[in-house]
Here is the input.
Amino acid sequence: MDPADNSFYEGKMAGILVEFLEVAITSIVYMKGIYPAGAFERRRYLNLVVHEVRHPALREYIHSAVSGLKPFIQKGSIERVAVIFSNNVNMTLERFIFKLAAKQSSDPSSETDALESSLRSFLTKLQVCQAQSAALPKDCRWEITGYFRSLPEDGPSKEGDSPLWVATGMSQWQSPPLITPIKSMSNGTLSLQLYLERNRRSQPSNAVQEQLKDPASAG
Here is the structure.
């Protein structure tokens, strides 16, 4: 199936997915605790209490990054959207990855309620998965990255401008990461998976973990 011909990526359904990604990414950033709790405020989305960014610059970054992917999501060009956390020497520590796959549906508009119900369950799971991820250093960095099925063509640009998109790969770990599935769903129009990748090098060894649990055993 040609993703560009899939009616899922047009109109209301694509808008629902983009709005969900913005809310979910905000929830992940809040959960990781890299900003003060006062930088967020509560609101309702899909009959759930979620967090919204109060700081204008941070809110605009998340919104513009996700909404900027919408035309490519509509075309079926986006395969994964990742929230990447790195340390101050740019070593990746964690990646929360949303993997998207369209499915053919004769009437996608009839799937709206089912899709919103499934996305609600993703947000519920996110609210209780903090224990599955590791604490981050205070000087960590983070970014939102979209991974394409193929590199899109750049639009018109001025001579000397940097390209809008760069070729890269999903596997950028020096060693295989620790992978933790968080949630998956599949309905008539979309398959969506959320999983966490963690850098093995940033995880304490079993011996260190035991010492952390029982300091008296260190002697």
